[in-house]
Amino acid sequence: MRMSREEAAKSRVAIVEAAARKFREHGYDGIGIAGLMEAAGRTHGGFYKQFDDKEMLIAEATTEALAGNRAQWRAVLANASGDPVAALRAWYLSPAHVERPADGCAYAALAAEAPRHGEAVRDAFERGLAESIAMLADVSGDREAAIRSIAQMIGTLILARAVATPEFSAEILQSGTSGGLREDRAPDRSGAPIGKADIGSGYRSA
Helix or strand or coil: residue 3? Predict the structure, then answer.
């Protein structure tokens, strides 16, 4: 029996929403189409009626996850009683966020995998990140500070999830909540300032 257009649209939404959670939980390559369809309550055979391939679903699910993240951030910023950026940082860098990647930040869970996927996935991250930066810059009045805050929060969360002991994870979260690095330049062991070119010199292609 053929589905109506409305039923097909609802099915697609269900698949994308389930994939947005499962990809954050397992990674893009950590779960297959059968597992994604099962999570959405759909049969494996219905996948290709909705999507050309898994890469198409990855791009749509990434867009969905990032939009959900922005909605959460927007609510925290709007309801902050003091400094909204500090409130966002404290909310984001919580033990609960460490423990629940499926419901959490898609940047922290998936951004490192984006370069191994197609242009559509990277475009989804670029659009999402540009919107996240603009949202935070509207609050802080400083685009560079917004980029720095987002990068620090994401990096802190990734490291807090990576370590084995809860005490170390909590220490990492606390350091991020307190504001992290506040200087754009840091001394090397000789005491001389390190410039941008020095930091990246080890990653230059031959």
Answer: coil
